[in-house]
Amino acid sequence: MKINHFGPVNMNPYKKQIEKMNQLQKTSSTDQVQISTEAMELQKGSRIETERQAKVEELKNKIESGEYQVNPREVAKKMYEFWNN
Predict the structure, then answer these.
(1) Which of 26, 29, 42, 50 has its Cα between 20 and 30 A from that of 71?
(2) 43 Cβ contact list (under 8 Å, min separation 6)
(3) Interacting residues of 68 by C-beta distance below 8 A, sequence separation 6+
């Protein structure tokens, strides 16, 4: 029986993989996100949204205080118009 020598005996088989990972960590750059001025304005919200939010808050306050009254005839009229037109 003949045994051939195939390289260094005390070599770590994962050494190349570790070296590749270290090299990738050294060369990798960080990601950056840039938001345009138009996107910033859209995130702030429009005038309509602020007015709508103010109206919702006003209605909440009226409901909680008991000042808000529902007109049943007007509700029925709107429902009828919605379903028949």
Answers:
(1) 50
(2) 35
(3) 59, 62
Q: Are 51 and 57 in contact (CB under 8 A)?
A: no
Q: How far is CA 56 from CA 42, 45, 69, in A?
A: 21, 16, 15
Report the phi/psi class of residue 35: left, alpha or beta, with left for phi > 0 and alpha for psi in -120 to 50.
beta
The domain in which residue 69 lies consists of: 37-84
The pair of structure tokens assigned to 26 is: 């050294």
User: According to the model, what pLDDT value does residue 14 have?
Assistant: 75
Q: How many domains does the chain have?
A: 1
pLDDT tens for residues 16-60?
Answer: 788 888 887 776 667 788 889 888 887 777 788 889 999 999 999
